[in-house]
Amino acid sequence: MWADEAALDAAGRRLDEWESGLADRAARAQALSARAQTLTGAARSDDGLVEVTVDASGLLADLRLDERTRQHSAAHTARQVVATTRAARVDLLRRLTEATTETLGVDDPAGLAIVDSHRRRLDPDQGSPDERR
Question: What is the mean pLDDT of the chain?
Answer without folding.
Answer: 88
